[in-house]
Amino acid sequence: QVQLVESGGDLVQPGGSLRLSCVASGSMFRFYDMGWYRQAPGKQRELVATATSGYKTNYVDSVKGRFTISRDNAKNTVYLQMNSLKPEDTAVYYCNRSPTVIPLPWGQGTQVTVSS
Hints:
The chain has 116 residues and is mainly beta. The chain contains no helices and 10 strands.
């Protein structure tokens, strides 16, 4: 069974940057369209960014120009570079397949806290 392991979250000041990583087990990663999701306290999980197997990317409006999703198929890894962080970016961040397909088992996520 595929496992997803997210890392890179931290406490950062507004305006700061973080780079999240998500490593997937198995041999099918390069075929998956992948996404980064986040869930803030008391809110539903939301899709933040996607990167298709063909490296096409898409972003929710609230992070456009600040976040960059990328992937390294040789390392079974998808990244989320987050710049100009805002307090409203505070959430647990998860990776998974794009929302158009049945998700893989969710990982534990990585906590991002933006606060002064």
